Amino acid sequence: MTNPKIPSKLECLSILAKNKTPSNVIEHCKAVCKVAEEIADNLIKKGIDLNKDLVVASALLHDIEREKKDHIEEGAKLINSLGFPEVSEVIKKHSLYKIEDPQRQPKTYEEKIVFYADKRVKGSKIVSLEERFADLKKRYNIDLKKEFEFSKKVEKELMVEDK
User: Fold this and answer.
1) What is the rounded distance in angstroms from the CA atom of residue 15 to the CA atom of residue 57?
2) Strand ranges (E), 69-133
3) Which end of the chain is more exposed for a tag (fewer CB within 10 A), N or C?
């Protein structure tokens, strides 16, 4: 199986710049990428087969259309139109919105890593899930109990213990 084209870190940063993605959003994406890379490296060391390039590109580009109304759908569409369908698929799965819908849930390691890493970054600061969800609750005044539970479950899956 050939590895489909996945943009490099440099290409991702160039795509963000060309798209005029705000610098604070780019800083958030870089922090999410840092968390995602660490998790991917950890899982790879434990023998889990995953595409780290896909994780890195998806983490960097996940919020490319953050300023738009349906930023996830818009971002996935844009990245797909640039010729990166695999990255687009991962981007589609980083939302908490309607997380109970199986179509929206992250299923692959790459999707779970980007989803989880995004939940660990508030602005450009790496925080605990608890802190991030407290901030989201305060900011949007919504109950995210089931989304928090889902995120904790993903966290458990990704923190594979050494055998």
Assistant:
1) 11
2) 121-122, 125-126
3) N
Rounded Cα gap, residues 55 and 70, in angstroms: 22
In this predicted structure, what is the pLDDT of residue 98?
75
CB 133 within 8 Å of CB 144 = yes
Question: What 3-state class would DSSP assign to 157?
Answer: helix
Q: Mention every residue, 6+ apart, whose C-beta is less than 8 A from residue 36.
A: 55, 56, 58, 59, 113, 114, 117
Spatial separation of the C-alpha atoms in residues 29 and 114, rounded to whole Å: 10
**121 forms bridges with which residues in the sheet?**
126
Nearest Cα residue to 115 out of 78, 71, 154: 154
**How many H-runs (helices) and E-runs (strands) does the chain carry?**
8, 2
Alpha-carbon gap, residue 107 to 90, rounded angstroms: 9
Residues in CB range of 32: below 8 A, 6 or more apart? 59, 60, 62, 63, 114, 117, 118, 120, 121
Q: What is the pLDDT of residues 75-132, one digit of tens each?
A: 999 999 999 999 999 999 888 777 778 888 899 999 999 999 999 999 999 999 999 9
